[in-house]
Design brief:
Two copies of one chain form a homodimer. By secondary structure, the first copy, chain A, is mainly α. The first copy, chain A, has a single domain, classed as Orthogonal Bundle (Farnesyl Diphosphate Synthase). Helices cover about 75% and strands about 0% of the residues of chain A. Chain A has 17 helices and two strands. In chain A, helix 5 packs parallel to helix 8 and helix 9 crosses helix 10. Chains A and B meet through helix 5, helix 7 and helix 8 of A and helix 5, helix 7 and helix 8 of B. Chains A, B: InterPro entries: Isoprenoid_synthase_dom_sf, Polyprenyl_synt, Polyprenyl_synt_CS. Chains A, B: Belongs to the FPP/GGPP synthase family. Chains A, B: Keywords: Magnesium, Metal-binding, Transferase. Chains A, B: Pfam families: polyprenyl_synt.
């Protein structure tokens, strides 16, 4: 897609995927090209997770942000692929940390090849991405991505620290998701702005846009863990609670439910056991006390604020696509 | 220590530690300063392994290489601390991958805090180091370190790939240790050369020096696993074999011993079980067939070649220290 002077009319996310299909193909091409380790097993394991149907949301934000800032070159596709490599590295480590069986409906790499391979291929993907990022010789990009990686690791440790603790304050929950999820999405948007030659002010606006969107995305994702259609989601429902992970709907419920119900939840967080019937009961309570609605309202508020961050930019196809993508982040099934 | 025109007489590694004590203190200072995560648990876990008595060999090579190239500034201390951060990150992941109980005589972080924390704090230390490295805005340093990290991850995967396989060719063994161990030591030397303003030719000479030294170090370390005084080593002997890991002394023995002995070793590699008596028998065979001597001869040959890489440099204190440190890498207990 060439982002010329014509502003296209986009109505839905399907339109966005359609208009940017060719560019996203370019990202796929780069991803394949980068799977070039001389150690064949590295490529096999990395391909398993990279080809498991991820939506390439982060590369899309790199592309759209670059276009929003008037970029007409090709580097954004390679940069998008590198962001996806980093994201994939974190998924490989997350699956080990969470002892997950399924991701996007497929067995996780850790279940197929074992934890050791998942840890090491994660390390490889991450360091492979850093190698190529530094080849761009762009200080802003180096800083944005390394900072995002640092924040992700901190967010994950913080999450683990609070694991099994039903008394985690909501502010700490927000800090965790800002670190572990929003940081890389914010960096993706900022990198697009940098490569597009945007001023620092506009770079920061797109960074904030991505940060708010990332928080909204994780809020919605955490809520989906209680409400989604399990089969469609490609993983088991109620996983967060089973792993002792308190997310916003649960924190809200814990503040509003009866003492016996609170005890039940605390007990389940501690023992990391949960029957389907208990899960149904808890989801029912979340509906009753408005916990689901509360979490989704917060998500939508972050999306609305994110969209306002785009006010600094002129209207064009990329801006409309970013606004649609922003809504998509909290409405998609996953 | 100021590396002025006077060339000091150094006789032993003790002299080297002594002469560069102040500079190494500067490295420690930087290590402490960099343990500044807002997530307290990150600092606790990182400090556990960073303060467990590591010799700071890699930072020493950064310092000595910088001095060899006439460096008179202070950045080499910070760079040394960042190399140590990266090294520590790999140790945290290695301990999870190897399911190790002890490192340097202390319980591993994975045994104290669990695998999840070790994986994530490893990720943190690595990304924290990258953040600071890019702040130096030096392309050569960025490339040297990211490349070393990529190679380390590849080497670890390759090692895992060959795990339990007694038929691994010696060339693949050398490829593994060149990747997993020598890469970061080579990068340490090169970084010292870069910060010292050396020509590309001299940078490459120090890179090769470090690479050969790194290979020699790992060869000696792998041999120590069969011959060291267990208590002094701070870990259990015969661990490599117990983990199904073939190293050079074992590969040599497998090529020379009798068929029944070969079967015993293959069986032990496969089942990952080994009694103390069997270990004693295997070490005895290694002595008998010259396997220990063979591996150590290779190590010493790499050290000799490494020292010849220093021929391009003028004689000074740092050069003498590097030569002593080179010998130390294959003679120290660990």
């Amino acid at each position: 897609m060439s982002n010329g002077p014509t502003t296209l009319t986009l109505h839905s996310m399907a339109d966005v995927w359609d208009v940017y299909r060719e560019e996203l193909e370019g990202v796929e091409e780069q991803i394949r090209k980068n799977l070039d380790s001389s150690v064949a097993l590295v490529n096999t394991v990395a391909a398993h997770i990279l080809n498991s149907g991820g939506k390439r949301v982060r590369p899309l934000f790199v592309l759209l942000s670059a276009h929003l800032c008037g970029y007409a070159g090709q580097d954004h596709q390679a940069l998008g692929s590198l962001v996806e490599f980093i994201h994939t590295a974190t998924l490989l480590h997350d699956d080990v940390v969470d002892e997950a069986d399924l991701r996007r409906g497929r067995r996780t790499a850790s279940k197929v090849w074992g934890n050791q391979i998942s840890i090491l291929v994660g390390d490889y993907l991450y360091s492979r991405a850093i190698c190529q990022i530094v080849d761009f010789r762009n200080q802003g990009i180096n800083e944005a991505l390394s900072e995002a990686c640092r924040k992700m690791a901190e967010g994950e440790v913080l999450q683990l620290y609070y694991n099994g603790n039903p008394l985690m304050p909501e502010s700490e929950y927000l800090r965790i998701i800002e670190h572990k999820t929003a940081g890389l999405i914010a960096a993706s948007c900022k990198i697009g702005a940098i490569v597009g030659g945007a001023t620092e002010e506009l770079q920061e606006a797109l960074f904030r846009f991505g940060q708010r969107l990332g928080i909204a995305f994780q809020l919605a994702d955490d809520t989906l863990d209680y409400t989604a259609n399990g089969e469609h989601l490609g993983k088991t429902l109620g996983q967060d609670l089973r792993q002792g992970k308190a997310t916003l709907p649960l924190l809200h419920l814990l503040q509003h439910c009866s003492e016996p119900d609170r005890q039940l939840i605390k007990d389940r967080m501690e023992t990391r056991t949960l029957t389907d019937e208990e899960l149904r009961r808890i989801v029912g309570l979340m509906q009753e006390y408005g916990s689901i609605a509360y979490a989704m309202e917060r998500a939508h508020a972050f999306v609305a604020a994110a969209k306002r961050d785009l006010d600094l930019f002129h209207d064009n196809t990329a801006k409309r696509a970013l606004a649609i993508a922003a809504d998509y982040m909290v409405t998609r099934d996953r």
